[in-house]
Amino acid sequence: MIEIKCKTCGKTFFIYPSRIGKRRHCSLECKRNDKVLVNKKSCSHCGQVRGKNHFRERTDTRDGLASWCKICESQLNREIKARNKEKTRVNSKKYKRYRRKNDPSFVLNESIGNAIRKALKSNKSGRHWEKLVGYSLNDLISRLKKTVPKGYRFTDILTGNLEVDHIIPKSVFNYENSNHIDFKRCWALDNLQLLPKKENRLKWNNIGKSFQPSLLLGGNDNA
Ligand SMILES: [Zn+2]
Ligand SMILES: [Zn+2]
User: Fold this and answer.
1) Do 64 and 114 fall into the same domain?
2) Torsions phi, psi of 91, nearest 5?
3) Which has fewest Cβ within 10 Å: 14, 75, 111, 187?
4) pLDDT per residue over 91-120, tens digit each?
5) Does one domain contain both 198 and 131?
6) How remote is the CA of residue 21 from the centroid of ligand 2, in Å?
7) 69: CA distance to ligand 2 center in Å?
């Protein structure tokens, strides 16, 4: 304990060393009567004595002011915001990784979107692939489910053992934007099927290396 002098009445009293600079009066009464403090208030966080305009007005406190000064409050808000931002960032990364491993429709959606972006180069310009091809992810899923080869399951696209194949190869078509008839034909539902990875590779080797590689699905954590 340390002995200090009350700023109002001059009486000495004892405080803990940690309260130095925070407590300056022997009693609440003396604090209220401190002329210097009449239009000021000390922040309960940083201990600074500041003008009352440095404190936010509140209805739920005795003096109608926040106990922390505005500077301390905004500092805290910044910290909370930064913490939350980091949290959502980590969560969405984890969430994506989880869905990429467990949800075939998520994998399909990502892969088709990427493949179409690649095919159109800059001409996708932020539009969702469903808008461009004229059918929905659900339409695609029900089409592909009908083409699952014997001995395979639809979920094999998660491991990359099944791949989406263009029955008439992509390279046969020639288009620069999604309005082109060749784009519609290339990405038409009835031109898409699931094919085992091995067979797909074989198909490409037979067709020749000048063709574009087929659409890869699953087994890819970097996208
Ligand atoms: Zn006093
Ligand atoms: Zn403060």
Assistant:
1) no
2) -60, -45
3) 14
4) 888 888 999 999 999 999 999 998 898 888
5) yes
6) 13
7) 4
